[in-house]
Write a structure and sequence with these properties.
globular; TIM Barrel; 8-stranded parallel β-sheet; binds zinc ion; 37% helix; 265 residues; 16% strand; alpha/beta
Length: 265
């Protein structure tokens, strides 16, 4: 089986045909998915997707783009939702100094609240980092000194230095369809240096469809293309790639249950 470690299924892009999209994923052996909360105000919708589908989990958090909407967010606002068995991670959170949709100080405060929630719950922090490598590495190290927390750098597009400093803290990295893009030589060049048991794959659907689907709406079944590219770079068989990325997911997101073997929805 494959795992899609980062999907956005609750929005309008899938409003018309979500059951078909999920069926297509199952057909491609994409079993477990983690659907992401990017706005606290949408948490109920995100949770509802997870609650109504087997093997779909969710997170609770506010994306750095949306940090401006919850400028005073506290760890407690996030922790209030983790009693649901479907909630297995804190985020999506982080720093985005490319778009800067929220002010830097608001992004930092928001990110630190998420870190506190992760440290207290030990649920993994799902991190978005764009144009913020040095600041991200520094804040992760600083906050680790106050107490450890598990973390994942999702849809990784940063440099080797952040990858190395994150890995030194026990961090995991998730690779998206970008891995298959012709232009993504830098990301492919990083892969051999990543800890082999801490690599996850994701679609980040409906965004970033991998080759050969580029330009179309991205769907979870397409995570297989990223898996194939990872297999090619690492010299792993597809079965080994499935096993390694799936094991990594369940090791990190230890609150999630592995699906029973060979049962299809
Ligand atoms: Zn992101």
């Amino acid at each position: 089986m494959w795992v899609d470690s980062h999907v956005n299924l609750h929005g309008e892009k899938f409003a018309e045909d979500l059951p078909e999209v999920i069926a297509k994923a199952r057909h491609a052996d994409v079993r477990t998915m983690l659907t992401i909360c990017c706005k606290l105000s949408e948490f109920d919708q995100v949770l509802a997707v997870a609650q109504s589908h087997k093997d779909i989990y969710c997170s609770v958090g506010t994306h750095p783009h949306e940090a401006k909407d919850n400028p005073d967010i506290m760890a407690a606002d996030l922790l209030a939702h983790i009693h649901h068995p479907e909630v297995i991670g804190i985020g999506e959170t982080g720093l985005d100094f490319h778009y800067n949709y929220s002010d830097e100080d608001v992004q930092y405060a928001n990110f630190r609240a998420h870190i506190s929630a992760s440290r207290e719950s030990q649920l993994p922090l799902i991190i978005h980092s764009r144009n913020a490598d040095a600041q991200m590495a520094q804040i992760l190290e600083e906050e680790h000194d106050k107490g450890v927390f598990p973390h994942l750098l999702h849809c990784y597009t940063g440099g080797a230095e952040l990858a190395r400093r994150s890995a030194a803290l026990g961090g995991y990295i998730s690779l998206s369809g970008i891995l298959t893009f012709n232009s993504a030589k830098d990301i492919r060049a990083l892969v051999p240096g990543l800890p082999e048991d801490r690599i996850l794959i994701e679609t980040d659907c409906p965004y970033l469809a991998p080759m050969p689907y580029r330009g179309r709406r991205c769907e979870p079944h397409m995570v297989v293309e990223t898996g194939k590219k990872l297999a090619e770079i690492k010299g792993w068989s597809l079965a080994e790639t499935q096993a390694r990325t799936t094991d990594a997911f369940f090791r990190l997101f230890s609150k999630a249950q592995r699906p029973a073997k060979a049962s299809h929805e």
